Amino acid sequence: MEKKAESELGLVLSALSDPNRRRVIAALAHAPAGTERTCVSFGLPVTKATLTHHFKILRQAGLIDQIDRGNSRAAFLRREYIDEKFPGLLNIILSEYPEYK
Prior knowledge:
By secondary structure, the protein is an alpha+beta fold. It has helices at 2-15, 19-30, 48-60, 79-85, 89-95; strands spanning 37-38, 64-69, 72-77. The protein has a single domain (2-100), classed as Winged helix-like DNA-binding domain superfamily/Winged helix DNA-binding domain (Arc Repressor Mutant, subunit A, Orthogonal Bundle), CATH 1.10.10. 52% of the residues lie in helices and 14% in strands.
């Protein structure tokens, strides 16, 4: 059981090591619960392939889920999971982005 928790923590920390991914999490954390946004709506300064990669990393870490919307995907924050497994993490991320306060 400990190895799984360590693995989850490692994945989350690795996912959050990139400032673009932290910005996505901050934007979703600031929005009302259940908010869904398309990947391009975040306006990250990266190519489409890199954007897809960032969202894959966030999804694999368990921080977001995505819903297929035809030719795009909408992402939403797994707020309950994050708050349960990593209490206070969203507040730390939000503190890095004062525009979301």
